[in-house]
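for the writeup, i need someone to sanity check this before i put it in the appendix. the sequnce is what the collaborator sent (i think, or maybe the updated version? ugh). structure was predicted straight from it, no edits. if anything looks off just tell me and ill rerun, i have time this weekend
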Amino acid sequence: MDETNRLDCAASYRLEGTPVAPLFDHLAALGAELFDVPVCLVSITGREDQLFIGRFGIDSETMPRALSFCNETLWSDLVQVVPDLSMDDRYRANPFVHGPSALRFYAGTALFGQDGVRIGTVCILDTQAHHDFSENDRALLARLATIAASALDIRRNQLSGSAAQRFVETTTMAVITADHEGHISFWNPAAEALFGHPARDAIGGNLTMIMPERFREAHLHGVSRLAQGGSPTLAGKTVEVQALHRDGHEFPIEMTLSFWKTATGVGFGAHILDISVRRAREARLQHLAHHDELTGLLNRRGFMDGVERALAENGRATVLALDLDTFKEVNDAFGHAVGDAFLQALSLRLSSAIAGDAALGRIGGDEFAVLLRGDLGLVHAADVARTILHVLRDPITIAQHQLQVGVSIGIAAAPIHATDVDELMIRADLALFRSKRDGGRAFCIFDNGMGADLAANRAFKIEIGRAAKNGEWELLYQPQVALPDGRLIGTEALLRWRHPERGLLLPGAFLPLLEMHAAAFEVGTWVIDRACAQLADWRARGLCIERVSVNLFAAQIRAGNIETIVRAALARHGLEPSDLELEITETIALRHDGDLEPLRALHAAGVAIAFDDFGTGFASLTTLKRFPLSRLKIDKSFVTDLVTDDHNAAIVEGVIAIGHRLGLRVIAEGIENGPQERALAALGCDEGQGYLYGRPMTAMDILNRFITRHERRPIRALFPI
């Protein structure tokens, strides 16, 4: 027998620290009288002590186990008898065998608990030796131990029953029992509170009193089947059903059922919980899963589900895809709080523009959609689009600001243009794109020409997916110089696609599709690693160069792990954070404001962050202040006419001044001739990039053109003007 299991069994009787019934002292007194001895003990053997739960003839409640005479008795199957303790080598040194009250005689037998586990002993002791302890005496002592064991079991069951009773009376869970006919036999206080029926009324009544009328027949049939010997199908299972309160209202409950056989048939019980709060929470979560929290409109998932249901009903539906033309300016100029309030007000105005069975959803930050169910036709859809354009013509007042945005609308209908929800949404988006391309603030209906473009784009996207696996991506590098002295200070890594059929493709041919492709993240990660590897290789070959710049995709920002990827690439190639510059566009900065913490961490570590093509988007001075920037890049559209156009010159001068006041370096793109370079230098521009210093070229071309092992010549010497 494992000692741990023995101790666990003994502990299950809860004898230590709890009052023990006088019955065990009476048993000890009876034993002393039966055997005419001064001491009789009923004891439980613990790890270190022997606990006397029944005692006669001594005052102590415990004895160290090391001094006990019962250690061998505990493990013996026979009654142990020691006629004279003083003559037994095992016990003659025991301190209780010496002195004026020295013990001389011992007889004991094991005390068995549940499943025959040895938990203690029953023993008798005397100050006189006994050499006449008979077999009948041994049998009588064993019977006394059996009586003690039975008393222990009864006590434990009473304690368990008492604990169970206290539990069901105090638990917040309703507990009900009933007989084979459904008559209630137990009804705890929680059941009273849950169903409204006091126990005096419920006990003896039928369970149908807490069931809605529509469920009673099925319940009675099930009870009848059990009464006839059928197997319970719900035993041990938890089910959710509707229950009936005394006042007549229904509410949801969760119920777990138990069944047992009785002398008269079958009994069963249930513990029951009110799940009204949980159901309400689930309904709230379900609502949030399908609705936009800001506007209360359907979100993308809810809207798509609505389109799918409409198509499942009769295969006919029309979708209007809406995009706000200048909402980014509102958000950037007045802040997110005003932007959110504007979207809420705009949602109300859009809701007023549609009627009947139409549904309105907000499927993106500034993207909405309208679902027209049934076969209403494209003429009706065009009328709805005109109404939307009309209601958004007037400005919306938010916090004393008169705010106005335009809207572009794309329309597609099923089954004319598509037969499933995804295709229908894609075609509406294509029509929306055409509307925006044509100037916006208008609507456009999908046509087959757009479908041909879609097919071509799909084929191209498949080829993009294969490009990485086939090693078709390449990097070219364009020099960046310090304008004051013409030194080479860096290069910008520029992505190219070596297409197996079309040859080397420039970004304009593939970048718009790549940015929306799942491969964008993978390609962007490859660009970072390849550019870092190339910088390390240049330096190993003797090229003196400060940094390499790479452009980020929006997918890399959304992923949230750009910091980890950059740090790993730098460490892999033995570079410092200051050796790398990351370029982001204004669009990425504005659309992913909440995802830029990793960039801030990289900037703090020393990685440079550049704002690419500054001045061509909607970024404001607030944007410049908010983002972790190191450098502004003046777009080449401002540089081209810098010398001949005073307006461009003023813009460039202003950007340079703003950048310097914010502590940023400024680099100009698209420098093609000396006058442009000299004008930029005169305006204080720090750095330059363009055909004047070199077209995008291979890494080997960079090395061959610019390596200077023994003298440092400015790039102008290599490209004289």
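DSSP finds 26 helices and 27 strands in the chain. The first strand starts at residue 39 and ends at 45.
thx in advance!!
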